[in-house]
Amino acid sequence: MQQEQQHHSPPAVSLRPFSLSESDVAAVMTWASDPRVTRFQRRGPFTSKDDARRYIADHILPHPWYRAICVGGRRVVGSITVKPAGAERHRASIGYRLAYDYWGRGIATAALGAAVSAVSEEWPDLERLEAVADVENPASQRVLEKAGFRREGVLRKYVMLKGESRDVVMYSLLATDNKL
Amino acid sequence: MDQDQEETQIITLRRFELSDVDDYMVWASDDRVTAFCRWDSYTNKEDLLRYMQEVVLPHPWYRAICLDGQPIGALSVELGVGCDRCKGELGYVLAAGHWGKGYATAAVKTVVASIFKEVEGLERVEALVLVENKGSQRVLEKAGFKREGVLRKTMVLKGRTVDLVMFSFISTDPLVD
User: Fold this and answer.
1) How far is the C-alpha of A52 from the C-alpha of A43, rounded, in Å?
2) Residues of B with CB below 8 A from A91's CB?
């Protein structure tokens, strides 16, 4: 399922906000309608463009930090979100999802790096970024490890996923970890 | 072993009443107790009465830890709302004069023996403990909780960010006798 990275140079990944344009709606549908991608997401799979349109309007646009993952400056291949844990913004959690055809090329790792840099600047009080990966999702665990996140432990039955409680691995990246 | 059993029998949990305020004040005003808590020691009874009225009494899972029927501490489980109905967070405090006698362990054992039957959909009770709070970590271990890991800088406690140890008890875990 996963291909080894075939490119020698890291992919040119950039992040930008979403809009309600038809192309953004179509992009969201690419991964949000794919059960291989939505398997470990709370929502989906979507069955119609209206689902995606409504999701952009009701969830993406009002979200504190939701970005489209772009490759080569144009093509939207996934999304990445950072959600502050409270009003103080000392802690936030990251989530991401990528269209299946773009797995295994280092894109998610690059997007994570870009997101970490961006929110670290925007939220100066940020000390901890965390992310969870399902115990049955080793690809996502590898992405987080490659992005420099540290594995803290397995939290049993920590999240509900499509009506079922799941064990997840908790990862964190501290502002102090990121020191150059 | 016999001594543990005797102490387990005399620790009971019940709902609070406003008339418990004087007993509640004993631990709620004690800096030794509140040092590890997110809240500051209470300095007057009116503030505590208001807290009991607004938070404690209407709470779905807030209990007095009683020794021979008299409150010596408090225990609460914050139930997950919305997406994560499967989990609840346990917190407890005990008056300092009753530390080191197994009372908190007995109270926590009572909770995990009953709460999964009482709360529909609950599968996980978790507790977060300061890395330095070895006493509380021992309470949870003796009550059968599993230590899952350290969550680094996960909470701001009285102006400083702290590392917390995550413990959990799953509905299918064995009860410790």
Assistant:
1) 11
2) 153-155
Q: Is B143 helix (H, G, I), strand (E, B) or coil?
A: coil
How confident is residue B145, by pLDDT bands cut at 50, 70 and 90? Answer: very high
> Tell me, what's the ipTM?
0.90
- Flag whether B57 is in a domain: yes
Say if the Cβ atoms of A91 and B153 lie within 8 Å. yes
B70-79 β-sheet, strand order? B11-14, B62-67, B70-79, B87-94, B124-130, B160-170, B146-157
Helix (H, G, I), strand (E, B) or coil at A96: strand
Q: Rounded CA gap, A38 and A52, in Å? A: 13
Q: Which domains does chain A have, with CATH numbers?
A: 13-177 (3.40.630.30)
Element (H, E) at A168: strand A164-174
Look at strands A13-16 and A66-71 and give their pairing: antiparallel
pTM of the model: 0.91
B116 neighbourhood in chain A, CB within 8 Å: none
Number of domains in chain B: 1
CATH number of the domain to which B150 belongs: 3.40.630.30
**Phi, then psi, of B139 in degrees rounded to 5:** -55, -50
DSSP B15: -
**Inter-residue contact A173 to A116 (CB < 8 Å):** yes
Give the pLDDT of residue A20: 96
User: Does the structure show a pLDDT above 50 at B7?
Assistant: no
Query: CB distance A153–B148 less than 8 Å?
Result: yes
Of the pLDDT bands very low, low, confident and very high (cuts 50, 70, 90), residue B83 is low
Mean pLDDT for the stretch of residues B153-169: 95
A128, A153, A165: residue with CB nearest B153:
A128
Tokens 């399902």 sit on residue: A134
Per-residue pLDDT of A43-66, as tens digits, reads 889 999 999 999 999 999 999 999
pLDDT of residue B177: 80
B126 and B92 Cβ atoms separated by less than 8 Å:
no
